[in-house]
Amino acid sequence: MTNTVDKKEIEQFSSLSNKWWDMSGPFSALHKMSNARIEFITRNSTRILKKENIGINLLDGLNCLDIGCGGGILSEKLKRLGAKVTGIDASKSSIDVAKEHARKSRLEINYKCITTSELLEIKKEKALNKFDLVIASEVIEHVYDRKIFLSDISNLCRPGGLVIFTTINNSFLGILLGKYFAEDILKILPSGTHKVEKFISPINLAKEAEEHAIILDSFTGFTPTFGFKNIITKEFGNFKLSSNMQVNYGAAGIKL
Questions:
Q1: Is residue 1 domain-resident?
Q2: How much is the pTM?
Q3: Which of 38, 75, 110, 215 is buried most deeply by CB count within 10 Å?
Q4: Which of 25-29, 51-55, 157-161 reaches the highest mean pLDDT?
Q5: φ, ψ at 65 (rounded to 5°)
């Protein structure tokens, strides 16, 4: 069986699983990026929504897959917007945390400790072409085989559905700030969180996705805000959407 899991990456995240909901812990950047990620997701989701659904529960009724969901930071926000959420992750300890947090939050989310390839192979799930919205947020830079990963995403998303990625640019600033500055200077991410060779530029992501019938045509940057307090405490401020894609960026498009 083929899969995209990098075992060392999973071990790293599993060792930190009890920190998923620590707002000032190793996943603080994901918490601070959450509102910007949701803004990008909802902005693009209008393309596949019925007009009468556009309101407070913008994602109402959409069958959504959150790949690499970790402790459920993004999955819970998607659920609160009305989506039917399936969250998958290869780390059992992360999934256990996600389940427990959802239970305490009284949110019904279908969490599974499983890979994209395994999800496709479970016949009873009928996962092929199942999801209206497939999200891989801060995940593609951690997978072992990007081609298989993109193929799996394409097969999981229904034709006409929406695929969304967020990741780090394989640019000078992406490498400098997203890897070395964040891990070694500010130390807001654990050392070894990212491997530079797995970073990908928006242009190359679009080219590779198109080979798997995913047409990425909406791009935006995610830029952290910095104040004096942030510098003193060695942490990011909240992220905002930006035209600057040199470090973190989002990419969205339709599965043909």
A1: no
A2: 0.91
A3: 75
A4: 157-161
A5: -115, 120
